[in-house]
Design a protein that fits this description.
Length: about 260
């Protein structure tokens, strides 16, 4: 990360799951947490199921809140250093999942002199580490509170989802003097509409149906990649959906083995 983030005149904010990377960062996190005994096999399978649903239909308020609550419960009483170390198991793979088209966008934003910020409902421990590995200026996720190096099981700050992302953007822009109208926001999901509408340059990435319609109505740019999230659920053959589910299920079985 840059040592002098205030040198930037504006910022570009990026959603993570389905935007910068394919799928959800919470799946490898859940598998690694299971291997270390932090979540049960039942909880792992629920996360795998949610991962399939995310690929097919995108995020929902209910599923996002469930993941948040499960993560907070899982880390309660755990040492911060131990949770941070979990990212070692899958960070290289996560870096490799950054979509080539979005890697180009990141480079373009750097060339424009803008700070690049990942905003995700995933744990801050993952998001900040990924930002560092990618050479970005900031990575902010959902942050669990801790005392004396031990997680308390409650949130510290806003849930980095929907309105929470917009709140973080407003706060960062006020702190660093970045005009909101000069900032960019990239996302694939309508749930990120608050963060996209708070900046001057919203960009849809492989947008789900509702966001694609919104982008068309308002004249927002659209970035298309090969990400499977760009497919409508009704357009995906049942066999392909079943194959995806089986693949993710095998990952959980291998973790349990």
């Amino acid at each position: 990360m840059s040592d002098s983030p205030d040198q930037y005149k504006a910022a570009a904010f990026f959603d993570l799951d389905g935007t910068l990377i394919k799928g959800s960062a919470n799946i490898p996190f859940a598998i690694s947490a299971f291997k270390k005994g932090l979540v049960s096999k039942k909880q792992l399978l629920v996360d795998i199921k949610n991962g399939v649903s995310f690929k097919l239909k995108g995020a929902t308020d209910e599923r996002s809140a469930e993941v948040r609550d499960r993560i907070l419960e899982a880390v309660k009483g755990q040492r911060v250093d131990d949770i941070v170390a979990i990212a070692d198991d899958f960070m290289a793979k996560l870096v490799s999942q950054v979509q080539p088209e979005m890697a180009e966008v990141l480079a373009e934003q750097k060339a424009m002199g803008n700070a690049r910020v990942i905003l995700s409902a995933s744990p801050t421990e993952i998001v900040s580490r990924l930002a560092k590995e990618l050479g970005l200026e900031y990575g902010i996720g959902t942050t669990a509170a801790h005392e004396n190096g031990i997680y308390t099981g409650v949130l510290a700050g806003p849930f980095c989802y929907r309105e929470g992302k917009a709140e973080i953007i407003r706060s960062m822009c006020a702190e660093h003097g970045w005009p909101l109208e000069d900032c960019y926001a990239y996302s694939d999901s309508l749930s990120d509409l608050p963060m996209m509408e708070v900046v001057g340059h919203p960009v849809a990435v492989n947008p789900e149906t509702e966001l694609r319609e919104k982008a068309g109505e308002d004249g927002w740019p659209v970035v298309e990649t090969s990400n499977i999230r760009s497919m409508r659920k009704r357009d995906m053959p049942k066999a392909a959906a079943k194959n995806m589910a089986n693949k993710l299920h095998r990952s959980s079985e291998e973790a349990a083995g």
